[in-house]
């Protein structure tokens, strides 16, 4: 069960998602991951958002009700998972960037590779989805309805351990302080400035 109010702006929800748990129950088994890093993305006011130029078949889930999963392919290689937030009809979502495996590490390792260190199994948005077994078929899943992929409460992260910084790898609005992560956690991905980054005004 998730008691977090997701029907708020992404930048408000993103830090509170730290410590929450995403679980995928598949025919292969169950994997649960405690979220340690997130990034907030708005809609028309956010140049880095997929919804910046309006609604399309690809980003339609972002415009729907809060609590659904928005899944997209990054650079044609990796699936990325976002938790939709805000008001129905207004695009808003939180990208899940990293997490710590709390159940099903053997299955996550099978998906990621035998030689991958535990801390790196779900480090980075693409690795997170691979470890959890998330693909395009999960786009639009209601995380609060008891489907195969669910969002639930975990151990709350103390405010003193939450850090804020610029978003990783985006070329627009990269300097917006919309990335949230658990200080000192080895599963958190390294900051990387996109070589195509352009100057922008802060949010």
TrEMBL record:
Enzyme class: hydrolase
TM helices/strands, residue ranges: none
Keyword Acetylation attached: no
Keyword Nucleus: no
MF annotations from Gene Ontology: alkylbase DNA N-glycosylase activity; DNA binding
Xref: InterPro entries: Formyl_transferase-like_C_sf, MPG, MPG_sf
Enzyme Commission numbers on file: 3.2.2.-
GO biological process: base-excision repair
Assigned keywords, A-Z: DNA damage, DNA repair, Hydrolase
Superkingdom assignment: Bacteria
PANTHER family named among the record's database cross-references: DNA-3-METHYLADENINE GLYCOSYLASE
Sequence similarity: Belongs to the DNA glycosylase MPG family.
Stated name of the protein: Putative 3-methyladenine DNA glycosylase
């Amino acid at each position: 069960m998730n008691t977090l109010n997701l029907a708020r702006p992404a930048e408000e929800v993103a830090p509170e998602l730290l410590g929450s748990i995403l679980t995928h129950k598949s025919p292969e088994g169950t994997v649960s991951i405690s979220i340690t890093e997130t990034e907030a993305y708005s809609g028309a006011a956010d140049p880095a958002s997929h919804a910046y130029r309006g609604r399309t078949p690809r980003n339609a889930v972002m415009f729907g009700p809060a609590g659904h999963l928005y899944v997209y392919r990054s650079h044609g290689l990796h699936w990325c998972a976002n938790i939709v937030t805000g008001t129905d009809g207004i695009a808003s979502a939180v990208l899940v960037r990293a997490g710590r495996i709390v159940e099903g590490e053997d299955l996550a390792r099978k998906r990621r590779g035998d030689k991958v260190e535990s801390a790196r199994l779900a480090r980075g948005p693409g690795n997170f989805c691979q470890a959890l077994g998330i693909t395009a078929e999960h786009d639009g899943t209601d995380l609060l309805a008891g489907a195969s992929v669910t969002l639930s409460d975990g151990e709350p992260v103390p405010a003193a351990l939450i850090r804020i910084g610029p978003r990783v790898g985006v070329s627009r609005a990269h300097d917006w302080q919309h990335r949230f992560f658990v200080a000192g956690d080895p599963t958190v991905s390294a900051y990387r400035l996109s070589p195509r980054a352009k100057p922008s005004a802060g949010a």
